[in-house]
Amino acid sequence: MALVVVGGVAAGLSAAARARRIDPHLEITVLEKGPDISYGACGLPYLIEGRVRRPEELVVYTAEYFRKERNITVRTGTRVAAVAHARREVLLAGGERLRYDRLVLATGARCTTLGIAGAAQPHVFTLHTLEDARRLRAFLLDRRPRRAAVVGAGYLGVEAADALRRQGLRVTVYERAQNVLLREDAALTAAVRKQLDTHGVELCCGVNVDSVDALDADLVVLAAGFQPNVELAAEAGIEIGRTGAIRTDDRMETSIRGIFAAGDCTETQHLVTGRPAWIPLGTTANKTGRIAGANAAGARERFAGVAGTSIVGIFGMAFAVTGLSEAQARAEGLSPVAVRIEGRSRPRYYSGVPTTVELVAERSTGRLLGGAVIGEDGAAGRINVIAAALASRMRLDEFEQLDLAYSPPFAPVWDPLLIAAQQLKKAT
Amino acid sequence: MALVVVGGVAAGLSAAARARRIDPHLEITVLEKGPDISYGACGLPYLIEGRVRRPEELVVYTAEYFRKERNITVRTGTRVAAVAHARREVLLAGGERLRYDRLVLATGARCTTLGIAGAAQPHVFTLHTLEDARRLRAFLLDRRPRRAAVVGAGYLGVEAADALRRQGLRVTVYERAQNVLLREDAALTAAVRKQLDTHGVELCCGVNVDSVDALDADLVVLAAGFQPNVELAAEAGIEIGRTGAIRTDDRMETSIRGIFAAGDCTETQHLVTGRPAWIPLGTTANKTGRIAGANAAGARERFAGVAGTSIVGIFGMAFAVTGLSEAQARAEGLSPVAVRIEGRSRPRYYSGVPTTVELVAERSTGRLLGGAVIGEDGAAGRINVIAAALASRMRLDEFEQLDLAYSPPFAPVWDPLLIAAQQLKKAT
Q1: How far is the C-alpha of B400 from the C-alpha of B404, rounded, in Å?
Q2: What b/e string do you get for A115-125 counting C-beta neighbours within 10 Å, with b at 16 or more?
Q3: Residue B427: Cβ within 10 Å count
């Protein structure tokens, strides 16, 4: 049995490694079009910032490691041109053909520069691969730019803005939508704007950047228009979902039996809405990769779905979300109630800092639908508690009684999460 | 309608404040035997350490505030001698009688010095009230002791040891049991021992201290033999549970209708075992106080129970637990499996530090039974995720797919919680 995996970053390598555990005799080949594998793509902004010194620090495993320790062949610089499923073959760009019994597509996503004129100029960068980060880092050191423009205020955009500002550049972030972080949440956007503003980064929402040359900047980072790489799948006849990403069942198998997909190129089921969603994140890539790999190797595992939990640090403050915002819940046809409270991360006498908690629940049932946590201390842990509650479809009356840890160095006796739940319960 | 609340710290004041919200016309009187009300008792060690400068910083609300803002009468220095329920009266120590329609007992717990000879000496302290902390603080400053002994390695004991050590004293902690932190968990005890040892505090387990004079110390803190104050309730004919604390139903009503109890003097239902447990903690005191107050004022609210979540900081490292340890689960007649892994709090390239996660699950069903988290970064948030999972009776296969937040400044892509769940799942 031969397993071929297309893509050698998070999802692809998770799939390969897990398939190996399930079946020690499987012949496993990973094909990666770029020069690097297994790197923490989410660490790229910290390479720009200079906190991470060398690109190699972001590499988790080498091709050599996979070959020696896992008996997995990893070929970098190897682009797949087509999938011929009738013959169970992938056709490589150089003309070579590779047979498979099972195929995992982990083709990822890309930052499209579609429609932006002048994107090919040397001072314009994307920040998606190690190679991108190496080039941008070199440009920073060699050319000493003074004025940066970041196109897109998603996670990557604000992280890039933070990193460039810390390098001393003047930074402006342009976002087409009225909201940042891909979330329809005016209060969250206002909080991000305030934090950026405090640290000297300008945020311009509702601005469509058509041309790089219109920007007053000697460095431009394009961090907008993220799209799943589905061309290979689509040309092979695999069904693409309404979100534009590859559709799979909960075993991560595509519409063609024997071909699985995982990671940023696939859609997943949203735990709260029960509908397909495309929320490309590293955690989901690793989880769906594992499951695709396991099932491709003969196991039967299913993916539970995503809550859309994410977090970003902007100049030391965390902005974390999970599930649906109030506006998103309404757009999904639900009848939400929401509350936003400001508590403290710990008791005042133990250096507690302000912590904002937003909770969204269904009016009729009190079921939690989502939340947001903003603060400099403990936001990750708190958003994860909400995420766990979403996974078990918890109601507010259950959530408000959670037995959360209390001790002055860590939390106040009434955690902001519980205060928010108490207040929101009154509204249901 | 008159509500009388016996006890003016966490549970008692939560009850009074909540009753007022439910019924604006209720006549509410809080009787507190000590001189202070509404203080954060868990902050006392930080007063000893010197991090909290003045005892007043620990006071959340004053009697004056309750009188003016909540129309609640608070009488300090007022000891209740007896409850005469047939006449609906409490008898005060001075002879005065006070009528009630509803009564809330929030009599708390105490550190018994029973059986320890020499406990009345001036260099021997407990650390339970603001007054205790004031006296101990004054003794430290006036007498400059060099050598401290702490009796008891529960939460308060290790916090006191940490605080005294930071004041420059040589500190030895004596514990009667083989385990610390009131948890039958050898690995947790070993980790605490190592942390204490690293910071120059000696831990002696399995040592029964019969006499203060046997200790080579010029300062002794007694932090053992915690007991619920149930005498008042027992003499009034209220049923005491098997744990030795006051038994209530899930509305916090005692065996006598119209008399409620809350906080450290009461037992609660354990979420995992479904059995009564006595786990006196500030969070539970506040929660049960709220519910007792609400129901005493005519509402119908129920308490879900406790998971026994707690956390303690020892020289900057957090030791957090929830639910049952493997040994405790076995003692409860369950058939547990457990795993202990060491992960990192964040990616290595982003200053991640070691984080130990222990998970315990039921072998047959995979249901989570408990866990522990040890580390210097993010332990509170992680134990709370386990606590939330226990509240919804989550299984390992659900837990391992939790959509937890990932970003390098906050967490690794595979959170230690998920790694532990993956590993433990193999054993079920």
Answers
A1: 10
A2: ebeebeeebbb
A3: 12
CA distance A274 to B170: 59
DSSP 8-state code for residue B239:
P
- ipTM score of the complex? 0.96
Best mutation target among B251, B403, B415, B418 (most A Cβ atoms within 10 Å) is: B403
Helix (H) or strand (E) holding B336: strand B336-344
Predicted pLDDT at A317: 98
Residue contact A392–B387, C-beta within 8 A: no
Q: Which residues of A touch B350 (CB under 8 A)?
A: 43, 46, 51-52
- CA-closest candidate to residue A136, choices A106, A111, A117: A111
Q: Are B378 and B407 in contact (CB under 8 A)?
A: no
Q: Which residue of A has its CA nearest to B314?
A: A409
| DSSP SS3 for B375 | strand
Contact state of A303 with B401 under an 8 Å Cβ cutoff:
yes
Q: Could you read off the pLDDT of B1-51 as tens digits, one per residue?
A: 999 999 999 999 999 999 999 999 999 999 999 988 877 778 899 999 989
- For B172, residues 6+ apart whose C-beta sits below 8 A from its C-beta are B148, B149, B150, B201, B202, B203, B204, B215, B217
Closest chain B residue to A372, measured at CA: B405
Beta carbons within 8 Å of A138's beta carbon, 6+ residues apart: none
Q: What is the mean pLDDT of residues B192-197?
A: 98
- Nearest CB among B57, B391, B402 relative to A391 is that of B402
Distance between CA A325 and CA A338 in Å, rounded?
A: 8
CA distance B348 to B393: 33
pLDDT score at B114: 56
pLDDT tens across A271-305, in order?
999 999 999 999 999 999 999 999 999 999 999 99
**pLDDT tens for residues B374-410?**
999 999 999 999 999 999 999 999 999 999 999 999 9
Instruction: Please report residues of B whose CB lies closer than 8 A to that of A304.
Output: 398, 401
Chain B residue numbers with beta carbons less than 8 Å from the beta carbon of A389 are: 388, 392
Cβ atoms within 10 Å of B8's Cβ, excluding its own: 28
Contact between chains at A410 and B306 (C-beta distance less than 8 A):
no
Q: How many CA atoms within 13 Å lie on the side-chain side of A268?
A: 29
Instruction: Fill in the DSSP letter of residue B257.
Output: T
